[in-house]
Amino acid sequence: MLAVRVRMLGDWHVGSGAGRHGFVDRGVQRDGDGLPFVPAKTLAGVWRDACERAARALDGVGGEEAAGSWREWVDFLFGGQPALQERGVVPGGGPVRPPRPAALHVDSLHCPPEVGAVLRSRPLLRQAAVFVKPGVVIDPVSGRAADELLRMEEMARGGITLSGRAELAPHTVELTEDQAACAAALLDAGARLVEALGGRRRRGAGRCRLEVSGLANDWKWLEGRTAPAVPGAVSGPVPAALPAHERRPADGPGWEAAELRLVLRRPLVAHERTVGNTVRSAGRVPGRALLPAVLQRLATDGAAVAARAGSLVVTDATVEVDGRAGRAEPLALAAVKGEPGRLVNLWQERPADGVVAEPVDGSGYVGPYRPGRGLERGECAFTQHTHNTVDDALQRPVEAVGGLFTYQAIAAGTVLRAQVRLPAGLVAAGWQERLSGTWRLGQSRKDGYGLCEVTATAAPCARARPLPAQAEGAGARLRVWLLSDALVTDDRLRPSSRAGDLARVLGAALGVVLAEVPESPPAAAADETDGGGGGGVRFSGVRRTDPWHARWGLPRASLLGLGAGSCLTFEVVSGTLTAQAVARVECEGVGLRRAEGFGQLLIDDPLLYACLGDTTAPADTPAEDPDGGGDGTAVAQGGGAAPLPGTAVAALAVLEEAAWRDAVQRHSPVVAHTGRSRVLGAGHEKVRASQLAGLLPLLSHLRGPNDPAARAWLERLRPVPGERRRRPWPDAVVEAVTVLLREPGRVWELLDLPETQITADTVRAGALREQLWTVAVRTLVEDCLTALRRTETSRRHEPSRRAGQPPPQA
Prior knowledge:
Layout: E1 2-8, H1 40-59, H2 69-78, H3 82-87, E2 104-106, H4 113-119, H5 123-127, E3 130-135, E4 151-156, E5 161-168, H6 177-193, E6 208-213, E7 255-264, E8 271-275, E9 278-281, H7 287-298, H8 301-309, E10 313-314, E11 318-321, E12 324-325, E13 327-328, E14 333-336, E15 343-345, E16 357-359, E17 365-366, E18 377-378, E19 382-388, E20 404-410, E21 415-423, E22 437-440, E23 451-459, E24 477-482, E25 488-489, E26 495-496, H9 499-510, E27 513-516, H10 522-526, E28 542-545, E29 548-549, E30 554-555, E31 559-562, E32 567-574, H11 579-588, E33 601-603, H12 646-674, H13 676-680, H14 689-692, H15 695-700, H16 708-717, H17 731-742, H18 746-751, H19 755-758, H20 762-771, H21 773-802
Parallel strand pairs: 9-20
Antiparallel strand pairs: 1-5, 1-6, 2-5, 3-4, 7-21, 7-23, 8-9, 10-21, 11-12, 11-21, 13-17, 14-15, 14-16, 17-18, 19-20, 22-23, 24-32, 24-33, 25-26, 27-32, 28-31, 29-30
């Protein structure tokens, strides 16, 4: 594990790709605490660019087309770029090879978490983290600012140290001692070459110093050495021959399960589809995304063989609802229009006259149904993040290399739940504990996405529930609720979304023959005398899944099947249904690719027979993150006894000074407009403007309340005893200016800043008053003189306005 720190030496801008209408045209990216941060993609891009410069220097003069051995090490660390090689954007001759996955995983760089905890109670301090700067576009022909192209850009303040971590993936590569030293030295050399990051870094913004600790060697190791051979990817154990998969008998060995609780520390992109330049995420993490991580941590031949044979099952990770994994919202539910949170079960209930019930869209998740308590419902929260790809030659985002693109991701701080199930005894006891730890999941997990903390505990599999008497023999009807998409084939082995094909596959798994019940209107089904159990009603949907080949960056074959949340009714034609068979099928699933979470279902769940009525819990109740922090990072609460680390103290010092300066800038014009006589004294308007202007050069060199030059200047204003010459400064003005320039607390009394909302520490507040005293006095006097000049100008032009004439030009 590598500790990465970047010290921002100047103001910087990492854009979010959006702004706020009428205020900011280009905003900065912010984390869950509202603080600017450096996304991992930005860090990886500038770090890679610096390592490429070091590699070109080490490879010598070979031309841009020749990819030397050190350049191969850059591709090994940061990943290959076959798409850009194919377009001729980056050098690389010969046929396009499979893209090499990045061995270096980089995390985003954030302010210390203690800073975010402190800023939650101090909004003024949080606002000081950024400021707005005007910008223009220079016309290349005229050399002046172009018309109508003034823009306002947010800039993050410099002087703050951001920290994160990086990891040289130990599970995907095996490095010798020489190779590990080479990778460490090249990373150190690249880090030392990074001088700026973010937008406008070639025009003075974003000056920084990148520091990496935890490396085995520094850049000096590279002196006089040639690059060792680049390691290849670890080839896992050759799987044994796959046995013919057989369903376990009802009285056979049971199953073991591990309950996974995933707390997202960073946003997670579970790719669902790509629309234009936007990658959209699903509201769950598919089991196929969890399966490689599970097999990697179990690391046994038995687990790999079981996954191929369909015995090992990894369910989809869904949002946590009521302390459990949320279940796909049954399409048999409908939301009552005009009554948020109220649901009705169309399988059992008929909406009253005048009540409009709209079927749910299946995007939500429900918890377990408890009679008398109602049904708790939750939804997955999403965030959007915009990135760009910079062309090395043009040094700007262009379409040829990817341009601007947006990721929709599951929000950080979301808590997900999933299960891993496998036959008892297949893996050594205690295998559940090996699944706990830090995982990286989803798309773009090498640079800032998909970081999560996983806690695994042993959990029971599906338990056998007693079935109603009419549901055991021939003629019984079952209600089936799909918790995930189900992939089945028809008689010609083509993907099918027909209920009849699902009935055939499910019947074979249960040891009975099932048939689809002809569909009838919901109202008729609800009126049947068997309590609603005989209604042949379908609430089903078809879902097409377009998986993505992460390594090649290309789409896989589409998957078509019945969508999660579908509710169907089947009839037992022959055979006897047992509770043990139902429990086994609910544990294993049905159809194809069960190891990846497809085919999960429930049979005759109590919710399908419930009349929800008016007892439904309020919808969309957000789950609290037990660890706190908008980005899922555990943070210390402000006001605690534990001392803050040095980086947090330094960051807070920068923000507090900026917040005090902003507060002075905001309050000073108000005091100058409403209480100018309190600042300059009564009768100050009688003093000539040229005399008052003498304050400006004095204030520009003012050093403190005891400044000798200010003391001498004030002495000249006082009348000399016995002198009868009329002084231009009234005594009240001289006294007010003397108090302002000689007493340290007078300016703060006049400004009346909300100091407690910015700085809670009285010692720190006193130090800031002393440090910013000259700034406050200079700002207040300048604003008072400006307000006085405007008042006199307005009074001078008042007769012209009353006569309807334009004021004279200065």
